[in-house]
Amino acid sequence: MAELLTESERTAELPALGDTGWAAVPDRDAIRKILKFRNFSEAWGFMSRAALQAEKLNHHPEWTNVYNVVDVTLTTHDCGGLSELDLKLAKRMDKIAGEAEVQRDHGEPVTCLCEVHAAGKRS
């Protein structure tokens, strides 16, 4: 069973993940990142590659995909919070994501390209 990160592990590891766009989830011991790709194919390709890494770690993300957007939350359910598995998977996902845009303000609505295109047609 995985163990929760210690305070020293959190202090050492989480700031670097924050620099890449991972942020704490309010009211949960979890981290979240919102990635925006150029199109659906790139988003799906990222998810496919990330799924292979998740399987290798036997650690699976909570995520959603709408068109070009992948919204990922990482936490380790069997220990009730962040563990080394989350750090490993976050780092692997960062490598896989390539040039994806990162939405750093998680308080803002998440808008996919299909919504942007639809809004442009209505104007």
TrEMBL record:
InterPro entries listed in its UniProt record: PCD_sf, Pterin_deHydtase
Protein EC: 4.2.1.96
A GO biological-process term: tetrahydrobiopterin biosynthetic process
EC top class, as a word: lyase
Keyword presence, Lyase: yes
Reactions mediated catalytically: (4aS,6R)-4a-hydroxy-L-erythro-5,6,7,8-tetrahydrobiopterin = (6R)-L-erythro-6,7-dihydrobiopterin + H2O
Superkingdom of the source species: Bacteria
Gene3D superfamilies: Transcriptional coactivator/pterin dehydratase
Molecular function per GO: 4-alpha-hydroxytetrahydrobiopterin dehydratase activity
Keywords from the UniProt entry: Lyase
Family: Belongs to the pterin-4-alpha-carbinolamine dehydratase family.
NCBIfam families, A to Z: PRK00823.1-3 (NF002018)
Name of the protein: Putative pterin-4-alpha-carbinolamine dehydratase
Gene this protein is translated from: phhB
